[in-house]
Amino acid sequence: MSIKISLKIKTDFDSEALEQNLALPLVRFKAKVKFWKGFSWTKSVEGIVDTGSPISLIPKFIWEEILYESLSSHNFGISGISPPDTSPVLANLVRVSCILFDKVNTSPSLDIRCYLVETNNIPLVIGILDILTEARIICDYKNNSAYLEF
């Protein structure tokens, strides 16, 4: 029996393209996540499911209260999340436990590798490593339906 976790589909439009009278949709899949604090789960946080990102990114306000295992003493420079012509954001590679859920179902507990980012100026990004290697993502954009199937 499989577990299906519904994803919210959010569509915005590229503002620069709109200035040129071009409607270019920016599609985001969003999921509700909780992280393990060592004795209980955090409050619910909404994250972007990013199939183009291999590793999840967790902003500081979330990781300050969760239990994690460091996987490297090296701080990695993460580019692509900060404006061009700025220094990469520093992040620590760790393993955390999380669950994804919707109004009806909850995923199994997942141990995922992720970067703890030293800023709050990014959204929670749910990468494919350790999540989409455990679940299938099903999307029917035309009918506004998407879910993860475990």
Architecture overview:
- There is one protein chain.
- The protein is mainly beta.
- It has one domain (4-149): Cathepsin D, subunit A, domain 1, CATH 2.40.70.
- The chain is built from two helices and eleven strands; from the N terminus they run ββαβββαββββββ.
- It has helices at residues 15-19, 60-63; strands at residues 4-6, 8-13, 25-35, 45-49, 56-58, 69-78, 89-101, 110-117, 125-126, 136-140, 145-149.
- Strands 2, 3, 4, 5, 6, 7, 8 and 9 form an eight-stranded mixed beta sheet that branches. It has a three-stranded antiparallel beta sheet with strand order 1-11-10, with no helix packed on it.
- It is globular.
Helical fraction equals under 10%
Radius of gyration based on Cα positions: 16 Å
Approximate shape: globular
Overall pLDDT level: 93
State the domain count.
Answer: 1
Sheet with most strands:
8 strands, mixed
Q: Could you name the CATH homologous superfamily?
A: Acid Proteases
What keyword list fits this structure?
Cathepsin D, subunit A, domain 1; mainly beta; single chain; 150 residues; globular; three-stranded antiparallel β-sheet; eight-stranded mixed β-sheet
